[in-house]
Amino acid sequence: MNLLIRNTRLPGASEPIDIQISQGRIQAMGPALTPLDHSELLDAQGMAATPGLVNGHTHASMTLFRGFGDDMPLMQWLQTRIWPAEARLTENDVYWGARLACLEMIRSGTVAFEDMYWHFHGMARAVEESGLRAGVGAVMIDVAGEDQAASCRRLTEQTFEESSRYSERVRFTLTPHAIYTVSPASLRWTAEFSARHDLPVHIHLSETHHEVEQCLQQHGVRPAVHLDRQGLLTPRVLLAHGVWLDDDELDLIAARGATLVTNPVSNMKLAVGGVFPFARAAARNIPIALGSDGAASNNSLDLFQEMKCLALIQKHAQNDPTALPAHEAWDVATGARASLLGRSGRLVPGERADLLLLRNEDPEMTPEHDLVSNLVYAATGHVVDTMIVDGKILMKNRIIPGEEEIRRQARAIAARVCAP
Length: 420
Fold this sequence. Notes:
It contains 14 helices and 18 strands. It is α/β, with parallel strands linked by helices and 420 residues long.
């Protein structure tokens, strides 16, 4: 199907243009384009067209636990609320939790995300049916010993083979949980499997000071060095959090070409005690992405809100109002600063047709001295009127087909798995 968007405007431009989409990509851009045969016409008068946002780290199905045990110490929250509830989850539960997450992400402008959770096929089906793009894997945790490690490896191999049944919008990703929940042997196995099949890896790293201390006690080195010794610090790896990385670790990450994903709201809510070292990472040209973490620890998946918090906490931490300006925060949120996410952060012919139409006339978008500044500092996801992914309209006039059923199913599941 072809799609022609009429009368939209790009950030910084004063004149309207048309965008012709064909076979999932932007085919042409310019004033008064002649539509291709069989083109659906979409009038975007009064709306700006921008690239979609990319969530570099989340646990989508944890939408089921939004507001479940807030304002508790981390380990008490995990041990008394989250882990017991997660033990009850079925693949179908994960599917509906992920559908709810995809619904929220569509409504707030996220076209692609990197996920880490249980029940690969439940997640993959949700992504496929929602129309979004996502990196999805089979979580590896082997704290119980070698039998659990062998089981995780078999599951990873099996799900990798089965992942071919889905479209290219579902990208198989290796997801070892963290250095404190995955043995060195399993980390090395993951590194070898990633290299053999050219697969991305998504792992937590240096989220808390306790993780650093534990790594020093157990392995004699800091977390990034430990990960590198297992062969897992490569250009294929996404490192979620990175709050407690020191300069030597940042030098190592830069040398290896790995990508850092900062999650400012979750880090503040869980009180990890530090601020992601954005300026020091950027000075080393380390690729950087933005994530929300799960809705149980955020509690929102709205990357517009995340962008604002990212910029503000960096200004505050550096005592510098010029730190991380709006246009730089926007580039991080659209994936333009992290090539591993596969995004350019631009709307140009040849790029994937994954884009947003934003309402310029909303109060928070008025006046428009600088559209991107408004998007970072004033807007929320509610300014997104229309989302297009792979050339298909997923939301128009903020209406998403099937929304009521998704909310109904998710409510029922959350009531069951979170019951005392």
